[in-house]
Amino acid sequence: AHEAALASASGPGATVDGHRVPLLANIGGPADVPAAVAAGVEGVGLFRTEFLFLDDNKQAPSEERQVEAYRQVFEAFPEGRVVVRVLDAGADKPLDFLTPADEPNPALGVRGLRTLLDHPDVLQSQLRALAAAAAGLPVQLEVMAPMVADRADAKAFVEACRQAGLRAKTGAMVEIPSAALRARSLLQDVEFLSLGTNDLAQYTFAADRQVGALARLQDPWQPALLDLVAAAADAANAEGKSCGVCGEAAADPLLACVLTGLGVTSLSMGAASLPYVRAELARRTLAQCRRAAAAARAADTAEEARTAARTAISGTD
Ligand code: PEP
Ligand code: MG
């Protein structure tokens, strides 16, 4: 019966009392679109464009090839939001022709937006391809940069988008604690934020996301991580702008409710997780989500945060 209920669940993401939380998909390219559409997503919250670049590690894909891949995705979401992340090369996703080979600490080196600002030709070509792919389509295109550290980064990205003639909302991923702490400053330039909780956990706890032995510190239930999520969401809400989550945290149904309680405005995840998140949100009120969020933040460890949220969320209003 549980499986049947999940299978039949569809429609937009919302709490039982009608607080809307758009549920979006994380995709790596056109091949992931059918599963996302089948899950009834309201759009794409994270299009990881680096997969297009990983095919050929020697050079960037041609602008024409990029236009074709982007267009296939945009056509699948006629009226929906599609949030595209510009190339996130380096660290766990090295590219021979862009990533310095001799860095002692690649995760703390030239990666993400830093790489693109060092190779403005690659960034301009990608932004022009996105503009061309969206031309004439009703898709609501939003473009965001990975690894934004400060307002100078945000400004440089917005300026690059303008230079490429891109008419899309521009955003910053919050993956570095400095970006969460100074979210309000970034929002003077960008129009939305998206929390990449995988990297945000890595940089908050100084725990390499590729080292399995440090999984405890990568746990998105860590109260310190929740504090940073709250800081970013509070800043966005104060500025009347959106702040989504596109890291793994959004795929955990109970944590999705906690994130909603912290003020996050959309959740993006792999299509397989979406029915579970939708079903959990649909049986909770916004007040319950807020109570669970407060309980989780008041805990001292990830384990205690999870237990406290579970207890708090089932209370009545
Ligand atoms: C993240 O860091 O949380 C994120 C969504 O980006 P990626 O996992 O691709 O680094
Ligand atoms: Mg990341």
From TrEMBL:
Binding site for phosphoenolpyruvate: R48, R85, N198, D199, R209
One CC-aspect GO term: cytoplasm
Coiled coil: none
Reactions catalysed: L-histidyl-[protein] + phosphoenolpyruvate = N(pros)-phospho-L-histidyl-[protein] + pyruvate
GO biological process, any: phosphoenolpyruvate-dependent sugar phosphotransferase system
Residues that, per the record, bind Mg(2+): E175, D199
Cofactor: Mg(2+)
Top-level taxon: Bacteria
Location of the protein in the cell: Cytoplasm
Group of enzyme by EC: transferase
Domain (PEP-utilising enzyme C-terminal): residue spans on this chain: 12-284
MF GO annotations: kinase activity; metal ion binding; phosphoenolpyruvate-protein phosphotransferase activity
Keywords, alphabetical: Cytoplasm, Kinase, Magnesium, Metal-binding, Phosphotransferase system, Sugar transport, Transferase, Transport
EC number(s) recorded for this UniProt protein: 2.7.3.9
Primary localization class, coarse: cytoplasm
Active site: C246 (proton donor)
Family to which the UniProt record says this protein belongs: Belongs to the PEP-utilizing enzyme family.
Role played: General (non sugar-specific) component of the phosphoenolpyruvate-dependent sugar phosphotransferase system (sugar PTS). This major carbohydrate active-transport system catalyzes the phosphorylation of incoming sugar substrates concomitantly with their translocation across the cell membrane. Enzyme I transfers the phosphoryl group from phosphoenolpyruvate (PEP) to the phosphoryl carrier protein (HPr).
Protein name in the entry: Phosphoenolpyruvate-protein phosphotransferase
The organism of origin for this protein: Streptomyces aurantiogriseus
Taxonomic lineage: Bacteria, Bacillati, Actinomycetota, Actinomycetes, Kitasatosporales
Shown residues within the full chain: 241 to 557 of 567
